[in-house]
Amino acid sequence: MSTRVTHTPHEALGLSAHDLVSMYRTAVTARLLDEAAFRQNRMGRAPFVVPASGHEGCQIGTAWAMRRGTDIWLPYYRDLGVVLVAGMTPYEVFLGIFSKADDPSSAGRQMPAHWGSRRLGIISGSSPIATQVPHAAGVAYAVKYRSEDAVVGCWFGEGATSEGDWHEGLNFAGVHRLPVIFVCENNHYAISVPQSKQMAVQDVAIRAEGYGFPGEVVDGNDVIACYGAMKRAHDRARAGEGPTLIECKTYRFQPHTSDDDDRGYRSREEVEEARHHDPIVQFGAYLAEHGVLDASGQDELRTEIKDAIDVDIATAWDAADPDPATALRHVFAEDA
Amino acid sequence: MHDPPKIDRPTAMTEKNVVTAIRDALHDELASDERVVLLGEDVGARGGVFRISDGWMAEFGEQRIIDTPLAESAIVGVAIGMAVHGLLPVAEIQFADFIHPAFDQIVSEAARMRYRSNGDFGVPLVIRTPCGGGIHGALYHSQSIEAFYAHVPGVKVVMPSTPADAAGLLRSAIRDPDPVLFLEHKKTYRAVKGEVPDERIEVPIGVADVKREGTDISVITYGYETHRCLEAAQRLEEDEHVSVEVVDVRTIAPLDVETILTSVRKTSKAMVVYEDNRSFGAGAEIASTIAEEAMFDLDAPIVRIGGPDIPAMPFATPLEHFYIEPEPDHLYRRMLSLARF
C-alpha cells in the first residue's frame, strides 16, 4: 500500500483552531461510537453492526467541506463519520443500531448503517453496492436544473468502482458537468477481495480522466489533507466546473461487519502496521504539535465523549421498538 | 399540480392512435409543469425511436429532453436521483427487452425507497417502455416484462390498451407520488385507434375497465390481447350468440380484484388471457385470485391462456404466429368451449 503523505497547514485551508477541535471531536466520537457498537454486538444487544474505525480521517475530512442544511449527502454503509458531520447524533445512530421506532434512517426497517434522512439531506441508501452513484448524478442534475447552490457528495469503497452503476453514474455526471463529488474510501479490501483482484490499476482516481473530470489521490488518514481535497472539489462544483473524483487511501481496522472474520484474508501484522497510521492518532499529534489541543486536553475530550455515548446507549436501548402493526405501511404514499 | 377536471358534461373527443395519445398527453404534462423532464436513449435529437418526442428538444430545451448515454441502469438510477430532489422524471427505456440492466435500480431502489425510509423519501418516477410482440421484434424486441415487476411491492405496473387509457393513465402516472412502470404495447401504437377526450382527463391507476359487457363468460386480459379478445368476442356474439364480457385490467399491479370478481360472479365462467409466457405470469395471479375468492361462483374450471414457455417471439413469421396463435383461432375456440362447458 502506497500512501502519498501531504502536510497541509490548516490555516491555508481556512480552518481555525476551533474548527480543528470540532473535527477532532467528531472523529473521536465516530471511533468511540464504533467501538461501543461492536461491544453491543458482542453483548448480544445489536444483531449487526458495520465498523468504521480507521476511516475517520477521510470521512470527517471530506464531509467537513460540505455544508449542513444545503448540500446533499449520499453515504455508504461504512460512513458513520460522514453522517455525524451531516448532523446525525450518536443517540440517533444507536436508535438505528437497536432498530428502534425512532431510528431516523428507517424506523428499524433496514439494517443499521443504511443511512437516510430527508431533514438532514441524506438520501436513503441500500445494501447493493454503488446503486447510490447514479442517484448522486440525478440529484446533482436536479440541483443544476433548479439553479440551487448545493453540492452533492457521494461516498463508496473501492469495491464499488467495479460496478456498472459506478461507471454509469460518473459518466453521466461528467457529460453534464454536474456539481457532485465522488469520494472513494479505498481501504484495499472489498470484504475479503484485495484491490489487486478488484482492479489492475493502483489508483482509482486515474479513472476520472475517462469521465472527463479531475481525479485526486489523497492520504485518507490525513484528515486535513482530505478536507483540502474535498474543499477544492467543492469550490469547483459550486463554480460550475463539474465533478471531481477523490480517492482516499485508508484502512479498515475491524472486519467488514460484525458477521465477518478478517483473519482468513488479512495478516495480523498487516492490520497492526495499519494501526500505526491511525488517522485519529495522527490528527491528535497534529493538534498537539500546532498547540491546538494537547494530550491531556484530548484525554479530557475523549472521556467526555465516552460518557455521553454511554448515556446515549442507555437511552436508545430503552426507546420504543417499532409496532408490528406498522410493518405494512409506506409501501406507497399514504393519503395526507 | 392541477386536479383532474370534473366530468359533468360530454367532453369533446378526437380520434387518435395510441402513440399520438401518449405523445399529446406527455406534451401537455411537459408544457404545464416544468418539474417534468424526459430522459432516455434517442429521445432528443431523434425524437425517440417511435417519434413520441419529435421536435421536443427544440421546444423544451436540452435540459428537459435529455439524450442519455446508452446505459439503462443509469437512466433509471439518475431519474431516481432527480425524483428525490424535486423533479418529475419520465424515463424512457427504448425497448422493454433492454430494461433488465435497470432491474436493480427499479427493484432495490425505486420500489423500496419509500418503505425503507419509513415514508421519508418517495420516488415520483415514471418509466415508459414499449413492450410486447407481433411486430417482428424477435427475442429482444418482443418481450413481456410485466410479471417481473408486478411481483415487487412499491412499484405500480400499468399497461393501457387504448388511446384514451394510454393518455389518462400516463397523466395519472406522472402525477403519482410513487414509481410507475408504464408499459406500452408496441402493437397498439399505430394499429389501435380510438376517441380520446380533449380535456386532460386522468384514468386512475388500479382500476380495471370492462371493455365489453357480457353474460356468458368473463375474459380478463390486458395489453394488445384485449383487442384480440374483443375481436373474438364480437364474432362469437354474431356467430354463436355467446355473450362475452371482456375486462381489461389496465393496471397489473395493484390489481383491481373487485372489478374482476364482480364480472366473474356475474358470468360464472372465467378465462384469463395474456401474451407473456404462461408460467408464473400475471395471469397466474389473476387466476389464483379468482380461484381463492370466487370458487363457488364458478360453473367451470378457470381457463388460463398465455404464451408458450419459450424466450419471447421468434423472428420468422410462422414462428412468431405460432407464439400468438398456437392453434388456428384459438381464442375464439377456447371461449366457445368455455361458454358451452
Descriptive overview:
By secondary structure, chain A is α/β, with parallel strands linked by helices. Chain A has a domain at 52-83 and 113-276: Thiamin diphosphate (ThDP)-binding fold, Pyr/PP domains (Rossmann fold, 3-Layer(aba) Sandwich), CATH 3.40.50.970. Chain A contains 11 helices and 7 strands. In chain A, a hairpin with a 2-residue loop joins strand 4 (189-190) and strand 5 (193-194). The longest helix of chain A is centred in the N-terminal third of the chain and has 26 residues, at 17-42. The relative contact order of chain A is 0.18. Chain B is α/β, with parallel strands linked by helices and 341 residues long. Chain B folds into 2 domains: 13-197, Thiamin diphosphate (ThDP)-binding fold, Pyr/PP domains (Rossmann fold, 3-Layer(aba) Sandwich), CATH 3.40.50.970; 209-339, Rossmann fold, CATH 3.40.50.920. Chain B has 13 helices and 14 strands. In chain B, the strands form 3 sheets. A 7-stranded mixed beta sheet of chain B has the order 3-2-4-5-7-6-12, with helices on both faces. In chain B, strand 6, helix 7 (163-175) and strand 7 (180-185) form a beta-alpha-beta unit. In chain B, helix 1 runs parallel beside helix 7 (163-175), helix 3 packs parallel to helix 4 and helix 10 packs across helix 11 (282-294). Chain B is globular, with a radius of gyration of 20 Å. The mean pLDDT of chain B is 96.
